[in-house]
Amino acid sequence: MVGWSIAIVFIAVLGIGGTIGWSKVSREHIEAKSLPLDGVDFNKLSDGTYIGEYEGGMYKWRTNKVQVTVASGKVTDIKLISSKELSENNTYHIDLYNRVLEEQTLKVDTISGATLTSKAYLQGIENALKQAQK
């Protein structure tokens, strides 16, 4: 009888903890999905090198810092300076940055399986390019 009581309490604690955890993850996902990319006008960029940061949302999970280079009025290079998610296995940001460079817009397809992080990386780029607006 005592064994069943302990098991029930254990399961209840796991359930409550899981519910609280899921609530936090869910709120962070909603915030990340709704990140506004206000639309930098790529036709009005001043040449230079700019640093942009995104603080990563309410839990700072997607914090990132980028360096964006503008030459002859075009974005010519984007480098990820730092990210909480950066590792040898996480190189999808390179594909995302190449899309921005090729299309000269932030309205690019995000990386499948990394949609929320892609939006965070795009926000870092936008924050850099806001400084480049003429």
TrEMBL record:
GO molecular function: FMN binding
Mitochondrion listed as a keyword: no
Gene Ontology cellular component annotations, sorted alphabetically: membrane
Superkingdom assignment: Bacteria
Stated name of the protein: FMN-binding protein
The keyword DNA repair appears for this protein: no
Keyword annotations: Membrane, Transmembrane, Transmembrane helix
Transmembrane segments: 6-25
Domain FMN-binding positions: 59-132
Family annotation (InterPro entries): FMN-bd
